[in-house]
Amino acid sequence: MSACAASGWLEVGDRVFVRRHVGLDLNCGLVVGDGRCLVVDTRSHLGEGQALAEAVRTVTPHPWTVVNTHAHFDHCFGNAAFRPAEVWGSRRCAADLAATGDRQRALVVAGLRAAGDLAQADLVAVAPIDPPDSVVDDVTVLDVGGRTVTLTLPGRGHTDGDLVVAVDDVLFAGDLVEEGAPPAMEDAFPLEWPATLTTVHALARGPVVPGHGAVVDRAFVRAQRDELAALARWLADPTAPPAFDEPTRRTARSRL
Length: 256
Fold this sequence. Notes:
By secondary structure, the chain is of the alpha/beta class. It has one domain: 4-Layer Sandwich (Metallo-beta-lactamase, Chain A). 36% of the residues lie in helices and 24% in strands. It has eight helices and twelve strands. The longest helix has 24 residues, at 91-114.
């Protein structure tokens, strides 16, 4: 078994890796260039961030840059483990994390303690709130050791500041795309999400890494876009008969 596989990495493109975690079925990404690397999302607390950093070091010794796809705790509360590296995110992601980080942390800790997971609650309770210090307003292109990595803000959907990360034909979609569970909508924009996924679909050319679940493809993005569009039509006119099939109807109910 290779060192990459042993440390949980799956290579989905040329020196482009995904690490899928048991906790929350969360995906993190790694792009390796010549003398530099890029880490996509950092997990739920400092300990998980440190474990991810150690896993990166099984693949490459290169200095890293970090990207947060959005401001939810499970994608960015591990940022401090990668400092003093530069951390990129959308401008709204940085603002949202600064504004809501303490509240997110308190809610997550309360939920973990209610579930009896006291050890995890204690780790999240001391997680530093460390927002991105480099921001994207539309599209930003990074040079990661000679590799072009494009950060795009495709529109509002899962949050108001979701970024997607493209390198070669691989697209890291964050929680704009989810596999294995319904997309989460606590602070989402369900009426705008389908149009945002139309943009994501146009950007997808090969493997698409969702925020949670198995790696998918362009067809999956299109299907999720269509499903969310049916939900949006229903939300806009709840008196109209839902225009989607029974599996989608069950998913829509779980989202509401």
